[in-house]
Amino acid sequence: MKEITSDKAYREHILIKTCIIVVLAFLLKADIAGAAPFAYVMSAENYINSGTVSVIDTTTNNVTNMVKIGGYPGEVAVTPDGTKIYVTDSGIGSKTVSVIDTATNNVTAIVNVEDSSWGVAVNPAGSRVYVSVRDSTNILVINTATNSVIATVNVGLNPDRVAVTPDGTKIYVTNHLSDTTSVIDIATNKVIATVKVGSSPWDIAVSPDGTKVYVANSDSDTVSVVNTSTNTVIATVNVGSYPWGVAVNPTGTKVYVTNWENNSVSVIETETNNVTATVPVGINPCGVAVTPDGKKVYVVNYGSNTTSIIDTATDNITATVNVGINPIEVVFGHFVDSNVTDQSTRVTSNATEDVDVEKTNLSSEEKSTAELNNSNNNNSEPENGNSSDENESSKNNSIPGFGLLGSLTCIYGGWKFRKK
Fold first, then answer.
1. pLDDT surpassing 80 at residue 183
2. What's the Cα-to-Cα distance from 67 to each of 42, 54, 70, rounded to whole Å?
3. Distance (Å, rounded) from C-alpha 402 to C-alpha 151?
4. Are strands 190-196 and 274-280 parallel, antiparallel or unpaired?
5. pLDDT tier, 45 (very low <50, low <70, confident <90, very high otherwise)
6. Rounded to whole angstroms, what are the CA distances from 37 to 207, 220, 388?
């Protein structure tokens, strides 16, 4: 009887300890995932070799670092994992793309390209970077593992900005002097469609669901709305004078367009394709980006050397940040503290070690029982792995906070069980 009681207490101890470990790991993971993104503002101090990237902490709206890069920056893009930034150099005669490590904020690699680079975008997998070459008809494909050009795609004249669809199947490129947008199949690196848009298309953005593309036409003072299924223009929205940048919020309900000559930002409601607000910002606004949570919009003002921060709930400016000279573009990247990551790894590792050590103390009878249970569970699973239980588990795991709730319930249940 004493042996049974001891065994029961031991099992309760293991249950509670395991649940506590799960909660700790979940909280650490939540802390990492919830880290505020950094805004990277690219500035072109002169046309030769004094470009900079200002790093803004979006929590405090303070510039925490300024990275020097060569040449005249064209655009900036961050890899999906947030570890690397690719900055193009549009200076005449320049033939490089800089790669910045976000952990150290240092230039760690230089990609040699054929001529001055302009627009840049990264695919969702983070394996390819697409760069447009100014005064040409070329889009370059860069392998991020080797930081080398592996393919060239011919598009329209003077390609500017590049955007990749969320599913990673297509690329949309604005051709500034052709008044068109080229659609590239990523699998084949071939142009599959050419869409006629407004005059002098500049920036471009894809909706989060991948169904629409928004093109800012600088000489038409319009935004073309392209249906990605048919690759046709389904709407044209009038905005301010000389629209430059365009960005879509995470829910796809609003589009923000910078108007260079009006010193303003037009807010477009995507359901009606109407401008619902015009927000005054700094002088000559160009680059624009929406924070991942959709609560703020960052607008870089070329003529003011500032970044305006707009509250999306009120469409009012809540802060203005001084950045480098002649800022052009802005993009967001998630920063993960290596110390937090290491701590999370250590907790998980130690937890595994503790459980494994205590498992070795099980009697041969307990081991046999456990092995039999595992065997029965494996045999009961369908071969295709699509059981209803698995589907339900997937649903639960996709719900924010489910892991924490389940873990707390587990601890409470273990405590109650022990009390009994």
1. yes
2. 9, 6, 10
3. 44
4. unpaired
5. low
6. 20, 34, 37
Measured CA to CA, the distance from residue 204 to residue 94 in angstroms comes to 24
Question: In sequence order, which residues have a C-beta less than 8 Å from that of residue 351 and are 6 or more positions away?
Answer: 18, 21, 25
Neighbours of 221 (CB within 10 A): 20
| Comparison of pLDDT for 37 and 301, the residue scoring more | 301
Q: Residues 276-325: pLDDT tens digits?
A: 999 999 999 999 999 999 999 999 999 999 999 999 999 999 999 999 88
Beta strands in 70-189 (DSSP E): 73-78, 84-89, 96-101, 106-112, 117-122, 128-133, 138-143, 148-154, 159-164, 170-175, 180-185
Q: How far apart are CA 86 and CA 59, in angstroms?
A: 23
Q: pTM of the predicted model, to two decimals?
A: 0.72
Count of CB atoms situated within 10 Å of the CB of 5 = 9
Q: Which DSSP string do the residues of 168-233 spell out, in sequence order?
A: SSEEEEEETTTTEEEEEETTTTEEEEEEE-SSSEEEEEE-TTSSEEEEEETTTTEEEEEETTTTEE
CB 44 within 8 A of CB 51: yes
Percent of the chain with pLDDT over 70: 69
Return the bridge partners of 35, or none. none
Tokens encoding 93: 């005669």
For residues 234-268, b (16+ Cβ closer than 10 Å) or e, as one string?
ebebebbebbbbbbbbeebebbbbbbbebbbbbbb
What DSSP designation does 363 have?
A: -
Distance, first Cα to last Cα, the chain: 17
What angle separates helix 402-419 from helix 2-33, to the nearest 10 degrees? Answer: 160
Tokens of 65: 């670092």
Is residue 156 a contact partner of residue 182, using CB atoms and an 8 Å limit? yes
Q: Which residue has the tokens 């009697």?
A: 363
What are the angstrom distances between the C-alpha of 152 and each of 94, 161, 219, 259? 18, 16, 28, 32
